[in-house]
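Support case: user asked for a sample of complex input and structure output to validate their parser. Sending the pair below.
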Amino acid sequence: MFQIEVNHVFKSFKQVRAVNGISFHIRPGEFVGLLGPNGAGKTTMVEMMEGLKNPDSGEILIQGKTWKKHEAELREITGLSLQETRFTEKLKVRETLLLFASFFRLDDRRVDEVVELTGLESKLTALVGTLSGGQRQRLALAVALLNKPQILFLDEPTTGLDPHSRLDLWRILKTLKEEGGTTLILTTHYMEEAESLCDYIIIIDEGKILKEGKLEELLEGNARNLDELFIQLTGKTLHDKVNGER
Amino acid sequence: MKNLKNNQLYRLTYSAFLETIREPEVLFWGMLFPVLISIGLGLAFTQKSVSKHQIMIVDVAANHVITDGGRQTQLDSILAAHATPREIGGKNAHTWTIQDNTLGDTEFNFVRSDWEASIIALKRGEADLILTDSGGTVCYYFDPHNSQAQLVYMKISALLKSSGQTVNTDKPSISPLTLKGVRYIDFLIPGLIVFGVMSSVLWGISYTIIEKRSQKLLRRLVATPMKKSNFLIALMFVRIMMNIVEALVLFFFAWLIFDIRIQGNIGALIVLFLAGNIGFTGIAVLISCQTSKTEVGTGWINAVQMPMMILSGIFFSYHNFPEWSIGFIKALPLTAFADGVRSIFNEGAGWVEILMPSLSLSAFGIICFLIGLRLFKWY
């Protein structure tokens, strides 16, 4: 059985069609990257998979179940990190983790485990408001991992981070991959992130899938990397160079 | 011109302007709402061309003189000569209007009543002072620390002196009222307690919800097995606890410094206090059920809070407002709450008196809460 089935999904906001008939299936334990530039429809797609948005049409099944009928059950087995979550700044890191752990009826032993996994030991008593961007992302990941999710959604987890923090986060995700048992759906516009972490890559632009497959399959043609492939497919780069992210 | 359009400051200013005018809600709260408030308050205050004062007259039966077959005091004689008889609140009264083109007209309403009702009128801020005529000597009863009462005393004594009647105004007797519950501070403290509850609940619940929604924290919270009702209950519970502590601190200092006492039933006060919290929590949830913009939320909170703060008799009696508005003012949740708490503090009210305000505040709060919950946007 597939962990996630996305069948002919459409979603529009007023005049803008954000997701335009997307279909794909994800197997258990796979690390899947939704790769595309800003505005490609990645976040809308992943938020529909997370049950935070409803598709206009089409069907999304998580372990064969819909969010509409099985929300409580699916919340227990999924974890997520939104593109921009600002946790309460006046709470400390440990307090924030304990709060979210309480939603899953977990005690501080699990909090200690995710703290160790995400390397937040030295920040346990720091107020969230004092954390750096990278530390905040690690906290968001720690919160997402609390319930040992079978399916983990990460929406642009490293956007805006410095290279060092980005590598830190990748290291955590690779550890997770080695441990097994988690299916990851990651949105990114960093080619290196998709190449480094993902078993299967879905390239999206303007709400449509341009190409999908394993990295080797995608690079079978002339393209040396995903950025070149994207240029070949669309005539534009994955992300604008003037924004200084590359 | 081309250089200007490429100028950073120009671009920033132009963008900020566009953002502002493209947000109609912000425009409403930022520009239209203050205008509406100023119109409302302007109408309430500037149309009051006559400054009105109410004076309670209490009969002192032993000092009546007989005239025209009826029992009249000398004060009655003066009023009969200068004032117009009328009825105020079902009681016999005389209105004496003094016209003054420079300072504005003043209307003194002399209302005849018994001592107990007069004291209550004073406690509620409906009247400024009590008058008795004892053997031709007028006696004034008022709180000497109440500047409004002092002003009315001076005006009335001058008025009676100039009336040319036989009443002895050279040696008026002044009896400072030191009864608990008639001082301005007795009026103010219950008002401040209920105002504190309203402010704390509206800002503490509405603003918190809106801020969490704007930061996408609400969305993150509901993407867990968290029970949505628990989130709202937790906010409400913390706020009520804080309100209890705040009210106790205020009361403690008022007791320590001003010797404020609760004359009525403490159990009834607790019930009414909780009902007030329920009432304003419902309003807070309704206000914050949709918007994710803190500017809009601030506007809504002010729109609810400011009119009640001004109208509901927190700092001064709402009887200063025109008579046509009193019915509306009494229907406001903060007025019901303030009147109820004040009656327990100052008038010795108990369960019977607070039953209606408690029920209406709770019912209003629950209705607002349910509507708010139905419209609530979690993400």
